[in-house]
Amino acid sequence: MADGTAATRTEQDRVAGTLTVAHRVVRKVCEETARHVPGVTTRAGALDSLRGVGSPHADVRMTGLSAHVHLTVDVTWPCALAEVAARVRDTVRVETSRLTGIDVHTVDVEARAVAPAPGARERRVS
């Protein structure tokens, strides 16, 4: 739909009505799902989410009942970056589709920053 929403239809909807999912809802579901993937760390200052620089951050492009997602994440150190990106991609695609009813075609993952794992001790090399 042109206004950033998509109507999903299931067999039950055909009997009871339709469900319209706003673009911002799909974006938020993607971000929340990515936040819970092991290896992803959260960065959010007071204005970060308003400026679109918090992490995870999703840009969602919707066409009808399908979505293409570009997801920017910060990852914990140390990590196997390719494995974390694959987990993020798969988890966000499956869970966002399941929770919203929108068919998520692609999830492109961009690792923007690496941060120490929460609670990790700083190590010094002498």
Secondary-structure map:
Elements: E1 5-8, H1 11-16, E2 19-22, H2 23-35, E3 40-41, H3 48-51, E4 57-63, E5 66-77, H4 81-100, E6 103-116
Parallel strand pairs: 5-6
Antiparallel strand pairs: 1-2, 3-5, 4-5
Helix pairs in contact: 2-4
Features:
alpha+beta; 126 residues
Low-confidence region ranges: none
How would you name the CATH homologous superfamily?
Answer: Cation efflux protein, cytoplasmic domain
CATH-assigned fold name = Alpha-Beta Plaits
The count of helical stretches stands at 4
What number of domains?
A: 1
CATH architecture: 2-Layer Sandwich
Major pleated sheet: 4 strands, mixed
Work out the number of β strands: 6
Task: Give the radius of gyration.
Answer: 17 Å
N to C succession of SSEs: EHEHEHEEHE
CATH class: Alpha Beta
Would you tell me the structural class of the helices and strands? alpha+beta
What percentage of residues falls in helices of 4 or more residues? Answer: 25-40%
The pLDDT mean sits at 84
Task: Give the CA-CA distance, first to last residue.
Answer: 59 Å
Shape: elongated
Percent of residues in beta strands: 25-35%
What does this molecule look like?
The N and C termini lie far apart (59 Å). The strands form 2 sheets. Strands 3, 4, 5 and 6 form a 4-stranded mixed sheet that branches. The chain has a two-stranded antiparallel ribbon with strand order 1-2. It has helices at 11-16, 23-35, 48-51, 81-100; strands spanning 5-8, 19-22, 40-41, 57-63, 66-77, 103-116. The chain is an alpha+beta fold and 126 residues long. α2 crosses α4. It is elongated. It has a single domain (23-116), classed as Alpha-Beta Plaits. The chain is 34% helix and 34% strand. The longest helix has 20 residues, at 81-100. It has 4 helices and 6 strands.
